[in-house]
UniProtKB/TrEMBL annotation:
Pfam families in the cross-refs: DUF6036
Name of protein: DUF6036 domain-containing protein
Highest taxon in the source lineage: Archaea
Organism whose genome encodes this protein: Haloarcula japonica (strain ATCC 49778 / DSM 6131 / JCM 7785 / NBRC 101032 / NCIMB 13157 / TR-1)
InterPro entries: DUF6036, NT_sf, WH_DNA-bd_sf
């Protein structure tokens, strides 16, 4: 397979400038991933320009401008990029690919208000304003996206002066936005891979391990339940060999996220899935 071409910060800057000139109305886009790292001098080149908008109106405007600029939709995406979950993936004649997301990113995270607040102005061209996503949020996206170069980029990012308290707070915010902790299992896997490849550990391990353990505890209880036959707390505890107080704690969490509900006869699974799944 022929390697995809790479593009430097100067090329990306020129493409974004032309994109702004093609817009007729205002759009604010947030640059994540390799493009944002390239503008900060953390990468020489990148294969993709990843842009996030936060409204459907801005998504439609950006789509029209990209079409006018000669970008065409990529239909033969490999499995890795299909899992990324971009609303739109387009490519120009040079092979430069732009992935456009509308608030949800990598099918596992939401571009939150906190992420918007932490971003910083980078360029303004015509009707387009481009903001660079904070490095603290980029490493979260890298951790869940799992593309071939993402672990390398995570290693680069942890060498900078990251605010791990901000990452921890954003992880908690994502749990509330996503109504669940499943996405932390993907972060755990990427942190393991980061250690395997580079022997790098971060302060994030401790909090992610805690969320991962909580998720597995909740899952252990949930897997006993069906959507049709209610089970009492006592029956669940007996089935799993668990302490009653522990079962009640997990059911409280699952009920808060809408995964189980209680009737007079006991608890049933609602059949609800996590907000973003593979």
């Amino acid at each position: 397979m022929t390697p995809r071409p790479q593009f430097d910060a100067a090329y990306i800057e020129a493409e974004l400038q032309e994109l702004g000139a093609a817009l007729n109305t205002e759009v604010t886009a947030f640059l994540i991933g390799g493009g944002a790292m390239a503008f900060r001098g953390l990468k020489d080149t990148t294969k993709d320009i990843d842009l996030v908008v936060t409204t459907e109106v801005e998504f439609d405007r950006l789509l029209a401008a990209l079409d006018n600029q000669g970008y065409e939709e990529v239909s033969d995406l490999d499995e890795t990029y299909q899992q990324l979950g971009a609303r739109l993936c387009v490519e120009n004649d040079d092979g430069c690919r732009i992935d456009v997301f509308n608030r949800q990113v990598a099918n596992k995270l939401i571009f939150s208000d906190g992420m918007q607040h932490r971003s910083e102005d980078h360029l303004s061209s015509g009707q387009l304003s481009v903001r660079l996503t904070a490095l603290e949020d980029i490493i979260l996206f890298k951790a869940v996206a799992k593309r071939p170069d993402d672990i390398d980029d995570m290693n680069t990012l942890v060498q900078t002066n990251l605010d791990f308290d901000a990452i921890e707070h954003e992880t908690a915010a994502q749990i509330e936005l996503l109504n669940g902790k499943q996405f932390t299992t993907h972060i755990r896997e990427s942190l393991d891979e980061l250690y395997d490849q580079y022997e790098v550990q971060t302060p994030l391990e401790e909090v992610i391990d805690e969320y991962y353990a909580q998720y597995m505890d909740e899952l252990e209880v949930r897997l006993v339940l069906s959507e049709d036959e209610p089970m009492s707390v006592e029956a669940i505890a007996e089935e799993r060999g668990l302490d009653l107080e522990h079962v009640v704690e997990q059911l409280d969490q699952l009920e808060a996220y809408g995964y189980v509900e209680q009737s007079d006869s006991g608890f049933v699974d609602t059949g609800k899935r996590d907000a973003f799944t593979e």
